[in-house]
């Protein structure tokens, strides 16, 4: 698509993310925007494209040669769930970022046109500035919550900041025969993928392609790493975290069956808090969880207060609604079957399915 979308005050166009100059302009825009997330970064979009094959796209609205609004997108293809434009793909954040005075209507209209041109009957915006009264759009409120807290001043204060019952679990993890490693080398990556793949299989969810994790680590560089907890040399809990704007976000994490007995997950998140503070972080972003879920209550046990999130979705005229929510009742039977699959088979089939979840 080479022709720009012409508007009275702004010009909306699809930019070339492979152009280093364009990527630098976007990074500068994000650095100045208070609502930017790791999922807005060109590196995230490129990692999704490299790791899953889902094309990276981005729309910008420009005024007087300056970026007035920016919408990151991945074009997600799935033979099971259909096609969509996601902002951003495989993310819990994203959506439109705009400067004051830019209403966003022009870029929403351009996104709808882009979706139709690319045969994507669905658009999902995961945060950011949302359309309030546009035909075809639905706002989803209170289905998910985010969790963010400041980090404490030192290790001891971080431990005492954890509520009493959860602190007792962390102390048990501190007393267990566990070792902590952090890095982004091949050994870190292999340990993380093995643990994460087993964890999501146990939850009944297909695992993402290993290439996605590798691409995020490679393209984010110092802004991502892996922390792994080992028991007698064997990895039992591991998390891949993103660093952005002074906050750490443990994004892809999990544990083996032994992790619960060893309190390895509790130890992992506490150690990540310490690790992040030593890296210069000031906040711990525990990501999102479905409201009322086990993960939601787990994060509350750590002292995090839930902040409701609002997402938006658009469905093309005449198209059916996309349902790729793993917690949907429609998918309950498939989840039960997946939980019983041998791990080797789940790891072989999972990436083929998960690359289209978006």
From TrEMBL:
Annotated ranges, domain BioF2-like acetyltransferase: 167-300
Pfam families listed in its UniProt record: Acetyltransf_6
Record-linked InterPro entries: Acyl_CoA_acyltransferase, BioF2-like_GNAT_dom, PEP-CTERM_FemAB-rel, PG_Glycine_Bridge_Synth
Source domain of life: Bacteria
Protein name (record): FemAB family PEP-CTERM system-associated protein
Organism annotation: Novosphingobium album
